[in-house]
Amino acid sequence: MSAERPAAPVRPRPSQASLRRAIRDRRACERWEAATQAVMGEGPKRAEVMLVGETPGDREDLEGHPFVGPAGGVLDRGMKRAGISRDDVYLTNSVTALLGPQVRIGRDRGQRFQSNLAELVTLTTHPSAILRTPDEDRDRAMEQFVTGLREVVKWLNAR
User: Fold this and answer.
1) Helix, strand, coil shares of the chain as percentages rounded to 5?
2) Residue 39 to residue 62: CA distance in whole angstroms
3) Bridge partners, residue 42, by sequence
4) How far apart are CA 124 and CA 153, in angstroms?
5) C-beta atoms surrounding 23 within 10 Å
6) Following CA atoms 30, 35, 37, 43 in sequence, which dihedral angle do they give, to the nearest 10 degrees?
7) What would the DSSP string read from start to end of 87-150?
8) What is the per-residue pLDDT for 57?
9) What are the residue ranges spanned by the domains of the chain?
10) What DSSP character marks residue 17?
């Protein structure tokens, strides 16, 4: 990488402090220039579930919190239907930094990934994608999203 865009400063087993520094010094990501601030993840440090979005949207950027605005509303409704409390989940927006640039939500949705981040690392549709789905397909997209979240609940209950 060039001096203007250094390699992502995230260690293989990142600590909260190293993640905060990486997000604060977000120049390793080409999207940093349009952002008004870094958006750090939020939730319990020992959460059983971590939900990771792709990049902060405009509302996340302005408010400084992950999964707010309309997409956050979709997430909240989906988690409620799946039986997941937002208070039990660590939410963040940095899937590329955490899983690598080869990850594609559409292609990799529902697959399990080997990772040092957690016992279960998997992908589901981002709530904002449901909002962009044509009206006639939106209910089906929401059902797929909830089904993915329910799979996480099944895995948690089976451990």
Assistant:
1) 50, 10, 40
2) 9
3) 91
4) 13
5) 22
6) -80
7) GGEEEEE-HHHHH-TT--HHHHTT-B---SS-S--B----HHHHHHS-HHHHHHHHHHHHHHHH
8) 80
9) 16-158
10) H
Q: What type of residue sits at position 159?
A: R
For 92-139, what is each residue's pLDDT tens digit?
876 666 777 788 877 888 888 877 777 788 888 889 899 999 999 999
Range 16-158 has CATH code 3.40.470.10: yes
Q: Does residue 22 contact residue 10 with C-beta atoms inside 8 Å?
A: yes
What pLDDT, on the 0 to 100 scale, is given for residue 97? Answer: 62
Going by C-alpha positions, the residue among 139, 143, 137 that lies closest to residue 124 is 143
What tokens appear for 45 in the block? Answer: 């440090």
No. of helices (H) and no. of strands (E), the chain: 7, 2
pLDDT score recorded for residue 3: 46
For the beta carbon of residue 119, count every other beta carbon within 10 angstroms.
10
